[in-house]
Amino acid sequence: MSIKKDDFKNSILKHLKLAGTTLKDATKRELFDAVSKAAMELVMENWRETKETYDSKNVKQAYYLSAEFLMGRAFSNNLVNLTILDEVKETLEDLNININEIEDQEEDAGLGNGGLGRLAACFLDSLATLELPGHGYGIRYKYGMFKQKIENGFQVEYPDRWLDYEDPWEVERRSEAVKVKFGGEVIVVKDADGREHFRRESAEVVTAVPYDMPIIGYGVKNVNTLRLWQAESEDGFDLQAFNDQHYNTAVKKQTQAEDISRVLYPNDSGPSGKELRLRQQYFFVSASLQDIMKKFKAKHGNDFSKLPEYVAIQLNDTHPVVAIPELMRLLLDWEKLEWEVAWPICTKVFSYTNHTILAEALEKWPIDLFKKLLPRIYQIVDEINRRFLLELREKYPTDWQKHQKMAIIGDGMIKMAWLAIVGSHAVNGVAALHTEILKNQELKEWYELYPEKFQNKTNGVTQRRWLLKSNPELSELITKLIGDKWITDLSELKKLEKYADDEKILKEFIKIKHTKKEQLAKYILDTLGIYINPDSLFDVQIKRLHEYKRQLLNILHVIDLYNNLKANPDLDIVPRTFIFGAKAASGYKRAKQIIKLINAVAIKINNDPDIKGKIRVVFVPNYRVSVAEKLFPAANLSEQISTAGKEASGTGNMKFMINGAPTIGTMDGANVEIVEEAGIENNFIFGLTAEEVVALNSTGEYNPWNEYNSVPGLKKVMEQLLDGTFSDDRSIFTEIYNSLMYGADGNRPDQYYVLKDFASYREAQLRVDKAFRDELGWAKKAWLNIANSGKFSSDRTIQQYADEIWDIKKTTV
């Protein structure tokens, strides 16, 4: 696409006029809105034409149901995908407008938290770019998860007010709102033929109002849709109660309804939090399925046998799995189908992605809560379970233990992962190792029962945002060398291999990396007031804070390095800047303590003159997509150090890779495939393997005291958690110490093998130090990572979903 500059200028001026201002008087926010709305005018025609094309060609469409979509800022990404960024930039320069300043007026969309939501965003980008008919459904959270601030070293959560201003990149579709019901009583009525019919009475009714975001394909006319639902009360304001001066009572229903779409992942450590989570999940899947069914019926009438021919629904982890019984409810109660007809339709429509190996992340709901909130859905789940148990008894007639273990309902809980497997035609893991662990360990019984359902779909990232947009300097070099086909076919990067020994090109790459480091250093100085040396090695770990991701191992190694420098200030090491970015879930106490420890260590090291700036530690608060776009291109080293067998895939590892940062990591998740593609000699692998972790877990013989007493320096590091080195309050890190040495919360000591892997990790870091001294040698390692990153595009992943699970076809607009 191209724009006519004069037309675009006039459109900007028109929108400023409609906002009651002028180019001279407009604020930066008003300019951002005007430019965005001018760009949206270009999008709307393609968006309309896309819908008409899919409809007229009668194509099968995929719908991606996800509790989160970590979209990042829309402004520049949309201009990149429209291929008009440079033209818009020039147009704005003619108007004396700095595009970077107005881009910074946009808040990151508060619709996701970590890898799950970022993956969903990459998938939507790839669907549109590949001209595939696929859309997203989720919740329009008012506040997102939270805005993280660091106060006295601790994470403090504030509302993420990303919707304080109108979002110019969304369109409200109030006329397409639907009703979602909670609670009430299920009434059974028999018709003249004696067939039972179900209806609900006295239910709470919540209105789901859709807001649509355009998902723009790169260099194509296809514009798919992310539809987000906002919860409102049907009759929330009680005027009589208000006039009677019962003000809280007057808005109680309204508040209760709006709570559903208020905050992403509310703290569910208590019963009310759990109920709100379940309300959120049912709310958005019920609204989405009603919407899908309405569109299907408008085109195909009541022939629901055709539903799997035209509709594919992907369940992104267990959050939307309640969609399975909800579709059954719609087919049984609304459309009056028999169970035997409805169930095969349902299973052909749904497919399920498992994103975890952690047992605690396999979602379960207490029966009492589920039954009270979703009484009809509970009846359907109960019937699914009854019929499934009959199937089990037929296949394993005497294995009562297996029946009990695999039952969807058991021990007072409803097991959503089990429901997902039974109710879907495909179940996929998200990395080769992860899928094998699911098949051979975590879901072994299920794989033996349904081997045909299981497959792997290794995750990917979109190179449009994570290279083309985030790192224009590197993108320009790549395009100069091999052309621009890589933007939509990342395997083209393989052509860069022939430059791996080209000193001139490597020096150009080194210069670009230094530029990105200078940009990040300026950002950190401007926002945090902390100076970091762009000539130092930028060692970066950015991801959700969880014990299995082992930010703790990283910071314990930093403490050990600090101790070595204190003992020998002239120690010859490469100057290093350790950069962390992570949010801890609001109810995750130990994760928050680890953030406090990182910040306490940072204060100690950064203010110690003996260290002479050889190492610095920075915790970047409120880690989010717009910050990640600065961190990935600037990193020299990618920290992917999860306990082997615990990380399903990872996608941050891929973003580092395509920006030229070798991995220091365990053979976990997609690290395994990264090493296969780029070579173990170009990365730094350490630690226990997944098989060794399984063996240690099964014997139960691991004792962290052995590491404590035998690994040089480790005892001192551990003692410093308690002796006041990093805090005047000597008890503040006691729980971290106890979790490692004695176990906590009923878990084994050092359950994620932080101490067990410490020596191996330190040795790998020594290899990093040695390798980084050879500037051209390091650049070659980084370059070969880029050249071999082609597999890790979400375009490849999505094409596999389209071909092997959804059966959707390229549809050019």
TrEMBL record:
Output the superkingdom of the source species. Bacteria
N6-(pyridoxal phosphate)lysine is carried by which residues?
655
Identify the GO cellular component terms for this protein: cytoplasm
Which GO MF term does the entry hold, naming one? Answer: glycogen phosphorylase activity
EC numbers = 2.4.1.1
Which of the seven top EC classes does this enzyme belong to? transferase
State the reactions this protein catalyses.
Answer: [(1->4)-alpha-D-glucosyl](n) + phosphate = [(1->4)-alpha-D-glucosyl](n-1) + alpha-D-glucose 1-phosphate
Q: What does this protein do?
A: Allosteric enzyme that catalyzes the rate-limiting step in glycogen catabolism, the phosphorolytic cleavage of glycogen to produce glucose-1-phosphate, and plays a central role in maintaining cellular and organismal glucose homeostasis. Phosphorylase is an important allosteric enzyme in carbohydrate metabolism. Enzymes from different sources differ in their regulatory mechanisms and in their natural substrates. However, all known phosphorylases share catalytic and structural properties.
Protein name (record) = Alpha-1,4 glucan phosphorylase
Source organism per entry reads Hypnocyclicus thermotrophus
